[in-house]
Amino acid sequence: MTNLSVNLNKVALLRNTRNLGIPSVVNAAQICIDAGASGITVHPRPDERHIKPSDVYELAEMLSVEFNIEGNPFQPPFMEIVRQVNPTQCTLVPDAPNTFTSDCGWDLVRDREKLIPIINELKSLGIRVSLFMDTDPNQIQIAKKIGSDRIELYTEPYATAFRHGNVESVFQQYAAAARQAQAIGLGVNAGHDLNLQNLAKFCSIPNILEVSIGHALIADALDMGLSTAVKEYLKVLPESKI
Ligand SMILES: CC(=O)[C@@H](O)[C@H](O)COP(=O)(O)O
Ligand SMILES: NCC(=O)COP(=O)(O)O
Question: Measuring from atom 11 of ligand 1, which residue has the nearest CA?
Fold first, then answer.
């Protein structure tokens, strides 16, 4: 089964607009877990626009499923949080501090040397390492060489092409990237702008291990409730072949 990791950034975003503590990130996580989610994802950004360090620590205390923390390891306090929490997985993302949202994968030709000690430290802590990547085959090759366990394919270009009705050629790029990654021993995750409409096609790519979904799922939850939304996404996900 391709695992669903629910990203709770947008629950925290709404919570932060009043000093009332609602909606609760921890309560939302429990609802997602009770509905069948295999993981929870958070992206504590330096400006704390949504997920705050305190959210990460509170989630770490209660989670009974995989915990995926995303972020740029060169922007404090990301690595400090990770060292304290020791999550299941870290997804390293090359975001600038003030980016509107995550908008590209790593340039490993440029950043490989500075990422190697980070990857080595995370793996020494027993944390699975995933690198947020575009579909470039040369970049994916380097991800393996520098010791990453997985890649997360950045799926916004796929989602945009899907929305515009001309997805096939873009989809084939993702399928080829996944095949290449799997052939060299990288696990393949995926995320960004996945939703109930575009997920089934994307997950027709064999052996996508995990999709992390937040924005669209939380938007769907406003219509149908969080538990139902999680169950609807789970209905779409295929049985993994491995
Ligand atoms: C890395 C990625 O694509 C998303 O997980 C990211 O967390 C989205 O960040 P925002 O929720 O801040 O847009
Ligand atoms: N890594 C992708 C993620 O966690 C959620 O992205 P989105 O569904 O909020 O676009």
Answer: 9
- Give the integer Cα–Cα distance in Å for 78 and 46: 8
Residue 21 covered by a domain: yes
- β pairing state of 39-42 and 3-7: parallel
Sign of CA dihedral 85, 6, 212, 183: positive
CA of 112 to the centre of ligand 2 (A): 24
Q: Is residue 180 part of a domain?
A: no
Q: From ligand 1's centre to the CA of 124, what distance in Å?
A: 26
Q: Are 211 and 203 a contacting pair, CB within 8 Å?
A: yes
Which numbered ligand comes closest to the C-alpha of 100? 1
pTM: 0.98
Give the ipTM. 0.98
With bands split at pLDDT 50, 70 and 90, how would you rate the model's confidence at 242?
very low
Structure confidence at residue 1 (pLDDT)? 83
Q: Does 168 fall in a domain?
A: no
Query: How many structural domains are present in the chain?
Result: 1
Q: In angstroms, what is the span from residue 211 Cα to ligand 2's centroid? A: 8
Q: Is residue 166 part of a domain?
A: no
Percent of the chain with pLDDT over 90: 98
Given a cut of 70, whether residue 94 has pLDDT beyond it is yes
3-class DSSP state of 58 = helix
Going by alpha carbons, the residue nearest to atom 3 of ligand 1 is: 192
Closest atom of ligand 1 to CA, residue 41:
5
Model confidence band, residue 239 (pLDDT cutoffs 50, 70, 90): confident
The number of beta carbons lying within 10 Å of the beta carbon of residue 57 is 12
CATH of residue 25's domain is: 3.20.20.70
Which atom of ligand 1 is least distant from the CA of 154? 3
